[in-house]
Prior knowledge:
The structure holds 2 protein chains of 2 kinds.
Chain A (H helix, E strand, L loop, with lengths): L10 E4 L2 E4 L1 E10 L6 E11 L2 E6 L6 H8 L7 E7 L4 E5 L10 H6 L7 H11 L14 H13 L5 E5 L7 H14 L4 E5 L3 H7 L2 E5 L8 E5 L11 H14 L1
Parallel strand pairs in A: 5-9, 5-10, 7-8, 8-9
Antiparallel strand pairs in A: 1-2, 3-4, 3-6, 10-11
Helix pairs in contact in A: 3-4, 6-7
Chain B lengths: L1 H25 L10 H44 L4 H15 L2 H12 L3 H24 L4 H9 L5 H11 L1 H26 L4 H10 L3 H34 L1
Helix pairs in contact in B: 1-10, 2-3, 2-5, 2-8, 2-10, 3-5, 4-5, 4-8, 5-8, 8-9, 8-10, 9-10
Amino acid sequence: MKLKKQQICWFSNIDGYLIVMQIECQNISYQYPQTDTHVFEHLSCQVTGPGFHALFGQSGLGKTTLARMIAGELTGYSGQIQSRQIYEILYTHNMERFPGWAGIGDMMESTIQASGRDMLNELVDAFGIQPVMNARFSQLSLGQKNRANLIRYLLQKFDLLIMDESLANVDETTRGRIIITLKTLFPEKCFLYISHNMMEIAKFCNQIVVLRSPCKHPQTSMISGQNLMTENNFVMKELEQTMLEIVHAS
Amino acid sequence: MLHRRIQQFVLVYFLGLLSLLLVKYLLNLSDYVIPGPVEIWQTCKSVFARYVFNVLDTLWIAVVGHIISIILAFMVGILGRHNSWIGSLIKATAYSIQAYPIVAVAPIIFILLGDGLMTRLLIAVMICYFPLLLSVIGILSEPVDSIEHFYVSTKRMNWRLQVRIRAYENINKLTTVIAGSATMAVVGTIIAEFIAADAGIGYSIRTALYQSDLSKILTALFLIGISTSLYLTGLEWVGNVIQKKCQA
């Protein structure tokens, strides 16, 4: 595949060929240790290019398991997970906590370099947690906890960030605003968003990997989302069509 | 807290004393076996001041022994928290030694070091240290995934941060374990004095035993109970202050 270099920044040149940022799962099979439960049987899927992508599926189908496999936190599966132009993968989930011995502002600053301070301020404003920056993590609401946790991950070096229900307990308007902020501030990064909110996924995500039960083949289905860059600028019919496709695929 | 703890101890002590006197009168035992209340009171008055000093002597050894045990337990516990070869070795050794009654090992220390301060201190430390070590290893080897995940993923985790996270998250358990091990430090010191010392309340009990003087033993037990209650209350107070500071 030969592409024009100036088209998109997430392509790199190797011997005259341009390689696209991609994560690809090939023929993945996995069963939980000491059980007969097969989570994946010959699962294959891929996400290509930077942007906001989604992993969607009913509860218990293995979204978190697959995410942890991609992040390298879970091994013992057969098949291959290959990445191109993706070197740093981070996985974050909504159950994470900050240590409790200092305020969240101090804890965030302790994990960034001086150059990241401007980005920290920008994210704090966009995520709406400025008033609680001096509070301890335990004093925050669930939504504030998730937003604070996401910010500290965004300040790290990453090519792919897997967000496992990272915006749970956050109201819909703020969630939309946060996703648009991510897409604007990190256009060259790849996000894989796990959520049960079908409308949100259909609205904001580019590629949607729909995970299906292990008895269905293929176990994944790929849907194109609306990939909106603004919250309200969408055609309802198209959005409904995408949502219908997701429902049919799952 | 102190007031209630001492009240409870005094109640238990006098219930025990009452039972002993009940046995004496029911079985018609002589004063030589179990002395009467008047004799107990008179003996108490005569030895009280001397025994207070003996108890204080024992208590400071117990406190020093306890502090040494805590420091040692944390140092070795930090090494033993890993699932590595060294961690397994430390755990296996601690469990094996814990299975031995230290009282049975104590004479070896007595033979090697003779009687005196070092022997008392060493036996107190040994009795207190191993249970404390096992608890500390248990607490520090338990990952706090919800907090540690970020630091592991971003390769920021180091041993100091890991220990800090686990200790902070288990501060209640740690303070309880440390306060609980204080009684073992006191018991260890008294045992050490009982078998290998020329000072302390344990030594006084041994002397009273040779004289078959139950009144002296009862007085010693009363003072041991009071001093242990004081020490435990002090430790619990420190524990509460630490916990409150952590939660502030």
